Amino acid sequence: MADGKKILVIDDDQDLRQALRAFLEANGYVICEADSAENGIRVYKAERPDAIVVDLMMEEVDSGVNFVKELRLQGNTAPVFLLSGAGDSVSTGTDYSQLGFSGVFQKPLNHNRLLNVLETKLK
């Protein structure tokens, strides 16, 4: 059960953010969102979410990676998940944990997997 845990969703695709908001709120999560890594840092500082889902490619190719680097400087302890449309090569060919991510979700997003991972990480 989500118990009102707060999830920050960062993606430049408004439709994806809205779909994730509707799905996660229906499952008991509180959602805050941003449309860029820069805005994501602002929302992070204001909201202090329990978990973060960030797109890899937004205004820059590696926006998600740069976002995580900035989170480290901010002392973040919340799990951060990379959202990627780059294909399975990202999750199998990259050590995402070295980059500071707790996991990778591929687009199109498998909602059941997302819920299972969030429930496990946010116990």
Walkthrough of the structure:
The protein is of the alpha/beta class. 42% of the residues lie in helices and 20% in strands. It has five helices and five strands. Strand 3, helix 3 and strand 4 (80-84) form a beta-alpha-beta unit. Helix 2 packs parallel to helix 3.
Please identify the structural class as seen in this structure: alpha/beta
Dominant shape: globular
Q: What percentage of amino acids are in beta strands?
A: 15-25%
Adjacency order of strands in the biggest sheet:
2-1-3-4-5
In brief:
With 123 residues, this protein is an alpha/beta fold. It is 42% helix and 20% strand.
Strand-helix topology:
Blueprint: E1 6-10, H1 14-26, E2 30-34, H2 37-47, E3 51-55, H3 63-73, E4 80-84, H4 88-93, E5 103-106, H5 111-121
Parallel strand pairs: 1-2, 1-3, 3-4, 4-5
Helix pairs in contact: 2-3
Output the keywords.
alpha/beta, 123 residues, 5 helices
